[in-house]
């Protein structure tokens, strides 16, 4: 089929009729085998996508899987910066994203020209950037981190070295508090993790006195302050498995509840309530991916992530640094 770039640019994916009789789970399994493709999915993907993935993980786990796969095609069920990260690590492989419009409010909160001007004002600072940023921001950074390794990454920098932390101000403030540093914070945030209501969570805790409140460090400080445990998506999942508690109020994107429930079927997981009655704790970007779009992207091998080679090399340097520090700290194998 002759697919024109405009077919994809407008909608974000190649929109064509799917035979309604097709078993998409079986088709995706067939395409993975036929094309030697690996399907990586973030925990925030819808349950059907998680169930067909070869690997489900948080940002650090996914980056590590992307760096060590010998598949010919990486299908990334996540958002754009994650697929872009896979491409940075794998220039020779085809990297596919089911919907090119699956962006990230946090990555969008740091436009590269503005960030460059900010960085230029502080020439004595090094830049540590959270992986939730564009390749352009990565290229302006010295080290990348994820929520799983951020503390170790910061520890690896001499105490007297000034640091700019971007783009998430909530994660940055949390890390400042934990490390006793005074990193200069870029004013960005994730729309999903900023939406939780302290008032509603407090009421929920009264109704469920034995429940543990577990939160992602992208949440705002008042939520983190009353949390029983704070961690990356994988750390939250592990905590629910090893904890003696049987009830959890989960302050992060709701997609993770699927794995929590699967891994601990006898425990109860309650999504932390957002400030109004919207489903704002579902990431609208992550949830743009569907099983249908996943099938189409594997069948037609579009949309594909492409990148200028100079940009890729510049963005890879701080990623390599992150991998080295994570390996030395025993966080990845
Ligand atoms: P982690 O996967 O590192 O926990 O990050 C959460 C997130 O917001 C991903 O978009
Ligand atoms: Fe970005 Fe937040 Fe969605 Fe993660 S949950 S992809 S940080 S908007």
TrEMBL record:
<keyword id="KW-0662">Pyridine nucleotide biosynthesis</keyword>
<keyword id="KW-0411">Iron-sulfur</keyword>
<comment type="similarity">
    <text>Belongs to the quinolinate synthase family. Type 2 subfamily.</text>
</comment>
<dbReference type="Pfam" id="PF02445">
    <property type="entry name" value="NadA"/>
</dbReference>
<dbReference type="InterPro" id="IPR036094">
    <property type="entry name" value="NadA_sf"/>
</dbReference>
<comment type="function">
    <text>Catalyzes the condensation of iminoaspartate with dihydroxyacetone phosphate to form quinolinate.</text>
</comment>
<keyword id="KW-0963">Cytoplasm</keyword>
<keyword id="KW-0479">Metal-binding</keyword>
<feature type="binding site">
    <location>
        <position position="104"/>
    </location>
    <ligand>
        <name>[4Fe-4S] cluster</name>
    </ligand>
</feature>
<comment type="pathway">
    <text>Cofactor biosynthesis; NAD(+) biosynthesis; quinolinate from iminoaspartate: step 1/1.</text>
</comment>
<dbReference type="InterPro" id="IPR023066">
    <property type="entry name" value="Quinolinate_synth_type2"/>
</dbReference>
<feature type="binding site">
    <location>
        <begin position="130"/>
        <end position="132"/>
    </location>
    <ligand>
        <name>iminosuccinate</name>
    </ligand>
</feature>
<keyword id="KW-0408">Iron</keyword>
<keyword id="KW-0004">4Fe-4S</keyword>
<keyword id="KW-0808">Transferase</keyword>
<feature type="binding site">
    <location>
        <position position="59"/>
    </location>
    <ligand>
        <name>iminosuccinate</name>
    </ligand>
</feature>
<feature type="binding site">
    <location>
        <position position="283"/>
    </location>
    <ligand>
        <name>[4Fe-4S] cluster</name>
    </ligand>
</feature>
<feature type="binding site">
    <location>
        <position position="190"/>
    </location>
    <ligand>
        <name>[4Fe-4S] cluster</name>
    </ligand>
</feature>
<feature type="binding site">
    <location>
        <begin position="216"/>
        <end position="218"/>
    </location>
    <ligand>
        <name>iminosuccinate</name>
    </ligand>
</feature>
<feature type="binding site">
    <location>
        <position position="147"/>
    </location>
    <ligand>
        <name>iminosuccinate</name>
    </ligand>
</feature>
<dbReference type="InterPro" id="IPR003473">
    <property type="entry name" value="NadA"/>
</dbReference>
<protein>
    <recommendedName>
        <fullName>Quinolinate synthase</fullName>
        <ecNumber>2.5.1.72</ecNumber>
    </recommendedName>
</protein>
<feature type="binding site">
    <location>
        <position position="42"/>
    </location>
    <ligand>
        <name>iminosuccinate</name>
    </ligand>
</feature>
<feature type="binding site">
    <location>
        <position position="233"/>
    </location>
    <ligand>
        <name>iminosuccinate</name>
    </ligand>
</feature>
């Amino acid at each position: 089929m002759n697919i024109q770039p405009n077919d994809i640019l407008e909608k974000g994916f190649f929109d064509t009729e799917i035979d309604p009789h097709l078993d998409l789970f079986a088709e995706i399994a067939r395409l993975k085998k036929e094309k030697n493709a690996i399907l990586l999915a973030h925990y925030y993907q819808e349950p059907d996508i998680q169930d067909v993935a070869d690997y489900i993980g948080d940002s650090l786990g996914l980056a590590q899987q992307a760096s060590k796969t010998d598949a010919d095609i990486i299908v990334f069920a996540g958002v754009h910066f994650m697929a872009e990260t896979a491409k940075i690590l794998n220039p020779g492989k085809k990297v596919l994203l089911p919907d090119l419009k699956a962006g990230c409010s946090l990555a969008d909160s740091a436009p590269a020209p503005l960030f460059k001007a900010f960085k230029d004002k502080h020439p004595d600072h090094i830049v540590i950037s959270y992986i939730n940023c564009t390749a352009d921001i990565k290229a302006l950074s010295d080290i990348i981190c994820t929520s799983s390794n951020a503390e170790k990454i910061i520890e690896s920098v001499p105490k007297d070295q000034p640091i700019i932390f971007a783009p998430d101000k909530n994660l940055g403030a949390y890390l400042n508090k934990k490390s006793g540093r005074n990193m200069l914070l870029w004013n960005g945030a994730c729309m999903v993790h900023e939406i939780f209501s302290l008032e509603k969570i407090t009421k929920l805790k009264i109704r469920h006195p034995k429940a543990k409140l577990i939160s992602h460090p992208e949440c705002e400080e008042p939520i983190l302050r009353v949390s029983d445990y704070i961690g990356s998506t994988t750390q939250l999942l592990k905590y629910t498995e090893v904890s003696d508690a049987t009830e959890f109020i989960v302050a992060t994107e709701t997609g993770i509840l699927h794995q929590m429930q699967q891994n601990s079927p006898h425990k109860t997981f309650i999504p932390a309530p957002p400030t109004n009655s919207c489903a704002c704790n579902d990431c609208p970007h992550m949830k743009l991916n569907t099983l249908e779009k996943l099938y189409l992207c594997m069948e037609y091998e579009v949309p594909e992530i492409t990148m200028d080679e100079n940009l890729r090399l510049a963005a890879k340097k701080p990623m390599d640094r992150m991998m080295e520090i994570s390996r030395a700290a025993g966080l990845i194998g």
